[in-house]
Design a protein that fits this description.
Radius of gyration: 22 Å
Low-confidence stretches: 1-41
Number of helices: 15
Mean pLDDT: 92
Structural class: alpha/beta
Largest sheet: 8 strands, parallel
Strand order of the largest sheet: 10-9-8-7-3-2-1-13
Distance between the termini: 46 Å
Number of strands: 21
C-alpha cells in the first residue's frame, strides 16, 4: 500500500505541477530515487523532495483527539492531497490523557505499555483501547492515500523510570538506560537515554519497532537538535533504530536552531531538521528565517532538508484567532519556503480553511519551485531586499524570487548577468499565473511592504 502511495505522489507531481509555462517533471526529476528504488535506509529514498503535509500543533496544541484527526485527514485528502500534501502528523502529547492547551502539565501522566513506551491516550484515541496503538488511525490515513506521522520526545518516560519498567528484549530496566541528568527544559515527560549504557540502543530499537508495527511513516522527534552535540548519540540511535525496524520512516528533528556547523552530521542521520525554534506568525520571525535559510543553503540535498518550520496560516491557536500575517506576508512566507525548498507543512486548522489560504497553498506553479528546482541560491544585491534564484529541473529557464523586507513599497531588482543571461527574457508571474512582459538587463518589480514576487524567466 505505501509503495503505491509514494508512486502515486510522484505521478501526481509529474502530471499535475504543470501550468501554462510549467511542463511535467522532466527526466532529471525522475532520476531522484523513490522509496522503492534507493537503498534501504537511504535519506534520498525516504524524502527525495521536501516533505509536504499537515501538522496539528499550530491549531490543536496538545489536545487533538481521534475524531478531530479523522475529520481533518478527510479534509486534507480532499483539499490538499491532490497538490502533493501527503504527510498527516499528530503532534505532541498524544499519550497524555489530560493535555488541555499549549502548556504542559508539570506532573506528566503518560500512557505507557509494559515496556515503558508511550502509547496513545485511550480517552482521546479510543481505537487504541485494545492495545493496538495508532494502528487503526494510521490505516485510515493510509486508506486516504496519505502517510501517517507522529511527534515524539527524545528519551525514555520519567514514569517508566519511576516504575522501572523492563526494556524489551533485554534483562535490563528503564533505570539502567536512563540519564536522569538529561532533561528537556520545557517538557517534563522524559529523561535522556545514556547511549554508553548496555540496553540503550535496544530501548530505541523497541520504540521504533512499535511505531513500525502501527504503520507510522514519519516521526518528528523533539528535544533533539538543541544542544546538538549532547544529543547527537540519541540522533544516531534513532537513525539506527529506523534502519532496523523494517519500515521506511522519515525522521524530522526538532527544535532548532540546529547549528550550521553540524550540517554534515545532521543530514546523514535525519531527513529534516529545524533551523529555528518554533516559528509563529510574527514578521520579525519571518524576517529572521531569510538569514537562516541562506546559511543552510549549502547543506540541502535530496533526502536532507533544512526545515524552516510549519506554515502558521489560516485559523490558529485552538481556534482563538486567524494568522497575524498580512496577505503580503503570507505570500512572502510561501515564496521563501518554496524557493529555498523548505518542507511545506501546513499548521492551520483545515476545518476552517478559507479560499485565500487554500489558493496560497495550492498554486501549482509555486509548488513546482519547491518540489522540482535546482541550483537554489540567494543573491545579495541591496539593503532592504532579499533575492533568490533557482532553475526548473530539466530546463534552461530560471526562477527568481524578489522580496521587499522594508516597511514601505520598494523596487527590488536583480541584474540578469547574475544569472548568466544576456538579451531579453520572457517573464511569467507564478503567483498570478500570467505572463508578465519581458525584461532586459535586469528584472525589476515594485513590491509592497513585506511583499514578494516569484517569476519564471525564459529565453525571449
Amino acid at each position: 500500500m505505501m509503495d503505491e502511495v509514494r508512486l502515486s505522489r510522484r505521478a501526481m507531481l509529474a502530471a499535475g505541477l504543470g501550468g501554462a509555462a510549467v511542463t511535467a517533471l522532466p527526466a532529471t526529476a525522475q532520476q531522484v530515487p523513490a522509496a522503492a528504488d534507493a537503498p534501504k535506509g537511504s535519506g534520498a529514498a525516504l524524502a527525495p523532495r521536501p516533505p509536504m503535509g499537515w501538522n496539528s500543533w499550530n491549531s490543536f496544541a496538545t489536545t487533538i483527539t481521534e475524531a478531530q484527526a479523522r475529520e481533518t485527514a478527510a479534509i486534507m485528502r480532499e483539499k490538499l492531497l491532490p497538490f502533493g500534501y501527503d504527510v498527516f502528523t499528530v503532534d505532541i502529547q498524544w499519550y497524555e490523557p489530560n493535555a488541555t492547551s499549549y502548556e504542559y502539565n508539570k506532573i506528566a501522566t503518560p500512557t505507557l505499555d509494559a515496556n515503558g513506551r508511550v502509547i496513545p491516550a485511550r480517552n482521546r484515541f479510543p481505537s487504541s483501547a485494545d492495545g493496538s496503538g495508532f494502528t487503526r488511525l494510521a490505516a485510515a490515513v493510509h486508506a486516504m492515500g496519505m502517510r501517517f506521522g507522529i511527534h515524539v520526545m527524545r528519551g525514555i518516560p520519567r514514569e517508566a523510570v519511576k516504575r522501572n519498567l523492563p526494556v524489551l528484549g533485554t534483562r535490563l530496566r528503564a533505570a539502567d538506560v536512563a540519564d536522569t541528568s538529561s532533561i528537556c527544559p520545557w517538557n517534563p515527560d522524559m529523561y535522556g537515554v545514556d547511549m554508553s549504557k548496555p540496553g540503550a540502543q535496544a530501548y530505541y530499537d523497541s520504540v521504533f519497532a512499535l511505531y513500525a508495527s502501527w504503520g507510522v511513516d514519519f516521526v518528528k522527534m523533539d528535544d533533539m537538535s538543541r544542544p546538538y552535540d549532547s544529543h547527537a548519540p540519541e540522533i544516531e540511535a534513532a537513525h539506527r533504530a529506523i534502519q532496523r525496524c523494517g519500515r521506511p520512516i522519515t525522521l524530522s528533528l526538532s527544535p532548532g536552531e540546529t547549528p550550521v556547523a553540524r550540517g554534515a552530521h545532521v543530514r546523514d542521520f535525519a531527513q529534516m531538521w529545524r533551523i529555528s525554534d518554533d516559528f509563529w506568525d510574527e514578521w520579525a520571525m519571518l524576517e529572521a528565517q531569510f538569514t537562516r535559510l541562506e546559511n543552510w543553503n549549502q547543506w540541502r540535498r535530496p533526502g536532507g532538508w533544512p526545515d524552516a518550520d510549519m506554515l502558521p496560516l489560516g485559523r490558529l491557536a485552538l481556534g482563538k484567532r486567524d494568522t497575524k500575517f498580512t496577505p503580503d506576508e503570507q505570500r512572502t512566507l510561501m515564496t521563501l519556503w518554496s524557493i529555498a525548498r523548505s518542507p511545506l507543512i501546513m499548521g492551520g486548522d483545515l476545518r476552517h480553511l478559507d479560499a485565500p489560504t487554500l489558493a496560497l497553498l495550492t498554486n501549482r506553479e509555486v509548488l513546482a519551485v519547491n518540489q522540482a528546482s535546482t541550483d537554489n541560491r540567494p543573491h545579495f544585491i541591496a539593503d532592504g531586499t532579499r533575492i533568490w534564484s533557482a532553475r526548473p529541473e530539466g530546463s534552461r529557464d530560471h526562477y527568481v524570487a524578489l522580496f521587499n523586507t522594508t516597511d514601505k513599497a520598494k523596487e527590488v531588482a536583480l541584474p540578469l548577468r547574475e544569472l548568466g543571461l544576456t538579451g531579453a527574457v520572457r517573464v511569467r508571474d507564478l503567483w498570478s499565473g500570467h505572463d508578465d512582459g519581458s525584461a532586459s538587463g535586469r528584472l525589476a518589480r515594485t513590491l509592497a511592504s513585506h511583499g514578494a514576487g516569484l517569476y519564471r524567466l525564459s529565453a525571449a
